[in-house]
Amino acid sequence: MQTLTLEGYLAADPSILTSQNSGRKRASFRVLETTRFRKSDGSSGERTTGFNCLCFSEATTEKYIEPFARKGSRVVIQGHVENDTWTGKDGIEHYDLRLIVDDIRLKNRRGPGSDGAEGEGSQVHEAAGGYDPDDDIPF
Q1: For residues 28 and 1, what is the distance between their CA atoms, to the nearest angstrom?
Q2: What is the pLDDT of residue 134?
Q3: Interatomic CA distance for residues 31 and 51, integer angstroms
Q4: Which residues, 6 or more positions from 48, have their beta carbon under 8 angstroms from its beta carbon?
Q5: Looking at the domain 4-107, which fold is it?
Q6: Over the chain (139 residues), what is each successive 10-residue block's mean pLDDT?
Q7: In this structure, how many other beta carbons lie within 10 angstroms of the beta carbon of residue 122?
Q8: What is the pLDDT, as a whole number, of residue 80?
Q9: What are phi and psi of 59, to 5 degrees?
Q10: Distance between CA atoms of 38 and 96, rounded to whole angstroms?
């Protein structure tokens, strides 16, 4: 399985879904990542890509995503990509890719009920799993 690491910003508040059968929570959200580049004529350009993400970890959803993740939050996500297929009302089959979250790190998170003021030292230095994007890469 291939692992993808993505850093970007939440496009909207995460949607917290609860299973009707088990009552387990999961989170669904979209992360936007912008790439800046220089065109052949020397002018600068940028391209924004959106990634649909799903987090099936109930502990991560309840402890990190639900209380702290909001539209515009900066996140670093590690996970794997899956194909998503569905048939629309018009009978046409649609295809999409989604990122299944294995680990998420919220940057500059605010506590529940905070007034939105973020201090210089409000960056979180903990990851929901064992991944730390600040670690040196061994190659």
Answers
A1: 22
A2: 55
A3: 5
A4: 32, 33, 34, 35
A5: OB fold (Dihydrolipoamide Acetyltransferase, E2P) (2.40.50)
A6: 90 92 92 92 92 93 91 94 91 92 81 46 43 50
A7: 13
A8: 95
A9: -65, -45
A10: 29
Strand partners, 47: 35
Residue 75, both tokens: 């996140």
CA–CA separation, 117 and 110 (whole Å): 8
Q: Are 121 and 103 in contact (CB under 8 A)?
A: no
Pairing relation of β-strands 15-18 and 25-38? antiparallel
Long-range contacts of 30-34 (CB under 8 A, 24+ apart): 31/6, 31/75, 31/77, 31/99, 32/8, 33/6, 33/7, 33/8, 34/8
Tell me, what's the pLDDT at 43? Answer: 93
Supply the pLDDT for residue 49. 92
CA angle 90/56/88 to nearest 5° reads: 0
* Pick from 83, 89, 78, 65: nearest CA to 10: 65
Q: What is the pLDDT of residue 110?
A: 55
Annotate 44-78 with b (16+ C-beta within 10 A) or e (fewer): eeeeeeebebbbebbebbeebbeebbeeebebbbb
